[in-house]
Design brief:
- This protein has 485 residues and is an alpha/beta fold.
- It has two domains: 185 residues, Aspartate Aminotransferase, domain 1; 244 residues, Aspartate Aminotransferase, domain 2 (3-Layer(aba) Sandwich).
- Helices cover 43% and strands 14% of the residues.
- It has 18 helices and 15 strands.
- The strands form three sheets. A seven-stranded mixed β-sheet has the order 4-10-9-8-7-5-6, with helices on both faces. Strands 1-2-3-13 form a four-stranded mixed β-sheet.
- A hairpin with a 2-residue loop joins β1 and β2.
- The relative contact order is 0.14.
- The C terminus is likely disordered.
- The structure holds pyridoxal-5'-phosphate.
- Its cofactor is pyridoxal 5'-phosphate.
- It holds the Pfam family Aminotran_3.
- Keywords: Aminotransferase, Pyridoxal phosphate, Transferase.
- One of its GO terms (molecular function) is identical protein binding.
Length: 485
């Protein structure tokens, strides 16, 4: 039966015939309306058009420098080296596209290269094995299952305050953020939280629950979504040592930090950790495809997927030829561009500039943090009065949101942090040309010159926009479809 439904022709999208207003209407109608409406009110929703891998054009025609995308675009938007490779792949590839239970040259090469890269930093991983999936949260789910299968009688998992590991049930249970967790309780049982950076508190927690009852400890080498929080020196090595001492599986969640973002191939290894499991995603897909990976020590891998149990954990798309090929090419581009080293150096310059900016505008910027090209600014709350706790956090959040708008007006696309309402992050592409990086930092200066104090952020926001944002913040989501009730 042929359908009479009028569909949007793919060619219309390809040929750029969908007008921005149409895109907005469709997205608000059928997508995440509330999120996109809020961003649209702020004027930061786009849709953007790519001018170069590192520059976008806003709907109003303004040229923007890209410093967002949650650290997932190592080469910016559709870098020609990557897209030319994809074109060549499409023309030449003869391997199965979704090999699943077959051998695959693309998967084989990526497994080998990832393990070789990890083993070059941590030789104990020379015979590790890799499980592929299609997102960060799925890589974490895999890690948790590997750990549980390794220690089936242990019922606890430990993560850290401020952590972000994803939003599917297992990873969400270890992302201790009431905003994301509360409505979904009860969560996966056994999730415990310890303060980030505090080894003594971790030891106390282990003594309280009994180390043999703990399956795994999962840690971000630097908390990205938590607001770019760097742990004290020795913390990660200490976590690793404690895990080894008690036979607990150590998981380094390198989904945001790994593959060069923070200036090293694996930030955990650079900080003296020797994790049993490493999770990767974001940059692995080159900003083009969805690829996640869980790299696991041989013995732990075999315990879950050994012998007849080898189908105990599986998926349809993990290991697909296109995503493997893009990931292989991405790794090669990171190696050839020496991007971890470059990120470390440019990030240090960027952080220095942010520090100088903070010194010039102490009434605006409360703190700057970062390593490599993962940089963060925290602003003073724009309402100066001493506020009680929930209102204080709200003031920080409103400041960060409006600061993102002000940065946008200065031509910078920045990100908020998912688990820290106080922070605006800058995470440009690892290969951003130096002059453009300089211009990005100049634009951040311009933003600060226009907003010399936190209160200026509010006074620079038009009153009618403030009123609409306030109304949006307190209104209940609309009921739109019959199934919504
Ligand atoms: C450290 C870390 N783990 C896991 C995730 C979840 O990844 P995804 O959004 O691909 O599910 C993120 C995403 O920001 C992350 O930063």
């Amino acid at each position: 039966m042929t359908t009479t439904t009028k569909l949007i022709p793919v060619q219309d999208v390809l040929d750029d015939r969908l007008r921005p207003q149409q895109v907005r209407d469709l997205e608000l109608r059928h997508g995440n309306e509330e999120l996109l409406y809020g961003l649209d009110l702020l004027g930061v929703a786009g849709p953007f058009r790519r001018l170069s891998p590192w520059e976008l054009e806003d709907v109003g025609g303004q040229r923007m420098i890209m410093a967002a995308s949650y650290a997932a675009t190592p080469f910016g938007e559709m870098h020609p080296e990557l897209t030319e490779f994809v074109t060549e792949f499409m023309a030449k590839n003869r391997a199965m596209t979704l090999p699943q239970q077959s051998l695959s040259p693309w998967r084989a090469a990526l497994e080998a290269n990832l393990v070789a890269l990890l083993a070059s930093q941590l030789p104990s991983h020379a015979d590790s094995q890799v499980f592929f999936c299609s997102s960060g949260t799925e890589a974490v789910e895999g890690a948790l299952k590997f750990a549980k299968a390794w220690r089936p009688n242990a019922s606890y998992f430990i993560s850290f305050k401020g952590a972000y590991h994803g939003k599917t049930y297992g990873s969400l249970s270890l992302t201790p953020n009431p905003e994301y967790q509360d409505i979904f309780r009860p969560l996966v049982p056994g999730a415990l939280t310890s303060p980030y950076g505090d080894l003594e508190a971790l030891r106390t927690l282990l003594r309280r629950v009994g180390p043999k009852n703990v399956a795994a400890i999962i840690v971000e080498p630097i908390q990205g979504e938590g607001g770019v929080i760097l742990p004290p020196t020795g913390f990660l090595r200490g976590v690793s040592d404690l895990c080894r001492e008690h036979g607990i599986v150590s998981i380094a969640d390198e989904i945001q930090t790994g593959l060069g973002r923070t200036g090293h191939w694996f930030e955990s290894a650079a900080q003296g950790m020797d994790p049993d499991i490493v999770t990767l995603a974001k940059p692995l897909g080159g900003g083009l495809t969805a690829v996640g990976a869980t790299i696991v020590r041989h013995g732990i891998y075999k315990k879950m997927l050994g012998g007849l149990s080898s189908k105990r954990h599986s998926n349809t798309f993990g290991g697909g030829a296109l995503s493997m090929a893009v990931a292989l090419k991405s790794l090669e581009m990171i190696v050839e561009g020496d991007l971890p080293e470059r990120s470390l150096k440019m990030g240090a310059e960027g952080l220095e500039r942010l520090r100088r900016l903070q010194a010039r505008h102490p009434g605006l910027i409360q703190d700057v943090r970062g390593q490599g090209l993962l940089l963060a600014m925290q602003f003073h709350p724009m309402v100066g009065l001493p506020l009680p706790e929930p209102a204080k956090e709200l003031a920080y959040e409103a400041t960060a949101i409006l600061a993102m708008r002000e940065l946008h007006l200065s031509g910078v696309v920045a990100n908020l942090s998912l688990s820290s309402k106080r922070t605006v992050r800058l995470s440009p592409a690892l290969n951003i040309p130096e002059p453009l990086f300089g211009e990005l930092m100049d634009r951040v200066d311009d933003f600060a010159e226009r907003n010399p104090k936190a209160s200026s952020i509010m006074s620079n926001t038009p009153p009618d926009l403030l009123a609409r944002l306030a109304a949006f913040a307190v209104k209940k989501p609309k009921k739109r479809t019959p199934s919504d009730g």
